[in-house]
Amino acid sequence: MALSARLEVRQGQGLVITPQLQQAIKLLQMSNLELEAFVEGELERNPLLQRDEGEPEAPEATADAARDEHAADAEARADLDTQYDEVSPGERATGDAPDVAEAGPADAGGQVDWSRAGSGGSFDGDGEGFEQRLTREATLAEHLTDQVAASGLAPADAAIAHVLIDAVDEAGYLRAEVAEIAQRLGCSETRVEAALAVVQGFDPVGVAARDLRECLMIQLKDQNRYDPAIGALLDNLPLLAKRDLVALKKICGVDDEDLREMIAEIRGLSPRPGAAFGGDAATPVQPDVLVREGPGGLWHVELNSDTLPRLLVDQRYHARVSAQARSDQEKTFVSDCMAQANWLTKSLDQRARTILKVSSEIVRQQDAFLAFGVEHLRPLNLKTVAEAIGMHESTVSRVTSSKYISTPRGLFEMKFFFTSAIASSEGGEAHSAEAVRHKIKQLIDTEAREEDVHSDDRIVEILKAGGVDIARRTVAKYREALRIPSSVERRRMLKEPA
């Protein structure tokens, strides 16, 4: 067969993932915090983007010229802007420098007007004022640092104490090895141990311990209640967690009454001595979707406008810089900024609509949960939602990632509503795994006496009688996920006197 070169023309279809499409996919799976950070970066990079406050803009002389120059796409942009006005409000961040007249003129003597300075002495008003510092709750590190000055340590030992305090976490435990600190500071481990003993004597009692046993031992010594018997009990905390009282009595060499007293003393101690002090404020989760009950048992689903940025393309500024662009490089830059700004606003609009579409279908599928509780949570997977709304499963997966829904029953991650199905023993509708876990917890919560404790086999029998076909290993897995001890440990707990 002779080899020859020839030209052929073939027609075919294929999906090309352009940079714009990649950007739209990334926007879809971003949380509201990640989206806000991304939008802030785009606002700084692209001069044609601006936040929309929803306020009417003052007419300018260049507005007519801009409309004439861009008449081809003005109608499409106006439609896009009108649609995005309904998505979410935001704050307008203008990058222009403030006018000198607005900043406040200097007086005749050339002095600065300080009337606009922040109350806390900060020029921008964002710093922490003196009053805020006085009323803010002190952190554990600050509380320990204040005690170093009153401890009478030598300067070198005080420096070691500060390093140790920096290694104490919010719970009050030391999270660094003594040998590591000694090597880093170039001193002996004995000197670090001596400084650590001083820090462990600070308030709160038990702070800077290296493990739970040492934390409890420090507190018992402070109360003058530490002896060999209770020391043996601290050495066998795993047996205490399992309620193995017979083995503990043998190890500690005490009778039932003494063992009960020692356990009561340990229960009165604090396993987290640093928990009483202030720390970094936790950032509350902002829901992406709001669900409320309407008349007639209908559920209204709407986007949380506070979490969605609203951007507009500054058409007048684009017309102004386009008219002044001279070189090809300048014209290309302005054209690219315009294309990216239009694509970003469209992508944000599409993201908001997709989230609303997916969440509305989730609410429709799980309306029984919203009305009656977790026992009525239905089995649901990504494929069911994707087929119902005509999207791909991967799109639904991205939408439900790191997104939250606020309902009358609380705030839930969207992934919460997707649960596996457990077959019915009577051949009826399948049960949700989350609903089955709730039933297991309810059964165990009703155990009031030692005779009422249900083994995993007994729970299987009760659930099968209720129409849930479940295996024993599945019950054990759900029980462990709920952090519920075994039936043997629960019997020991109920056997102990109150």
Give structural notes:
With 498 residues, the protein is mostly helical. It is built from 24 helices and eight strands. The strands form three sheets. Strands 3-2-5-6 form a four-stranded mixed β-sheet, covered by helices on one side. The longest helix has 38 residues, at 328-365. The radius of gyration is 33 Å and the shape is extended. The N and C termini lie far apart (95 Å).
What's the overall average pLDDT, rounded? 80
pLDDT < 50 runs, ≥5 residues: 55-127
Main β-sheet, in a few words? 4 strands, mixed
Adjacency order of strands in the biggest sheet: 3-2-5-6
Count of alpha and pi helical runs: 24
* Total number of strands: 8
What percentage of the residues does DSSP assign to strands (E)? 5-15%
Shape: extended
- Category from helices, strands and their pairing: mainly alpha
* Radius of gyration, taken over Cα atoms and rounded to an integer in Å: 33 Å
Q: Any chance you could write out the topology, listing elements then pairs?
A:
Layout: H1 19-29, H2 32-45, E1 49-51, H3 62-69, H4 71-84, H5 100-103, H6 130-135, H7 140-149, H8 155-166, H9 178-185, H10 189-199, H11 212-222, H12 228-234, H13 237-241, H14 245-252, H15 256-267, E2 289-293, E3 299-303, E4 311-313, H16 315-324, H17 328-365, H18 367-372, H19 382-389, H20 393-399, E5 404-407, E6 410-413, E7 421-422, E8 431-432, H21 433-445, H22 456-465, H23 472-481, H24 487-495
Parallel strand pairs: 2-5
Antiparallel strand pairs: 1-4, 2-3, 5-6, 7-8
Question: What structural keywords apply?
Answer:
4-stranded mixed beta sheet; single chain; 498 residues; two-stranded antiparallel ribbon; 8 strands; 6% strand; mainly alpha; Arc Repressor Mutant, subunit A
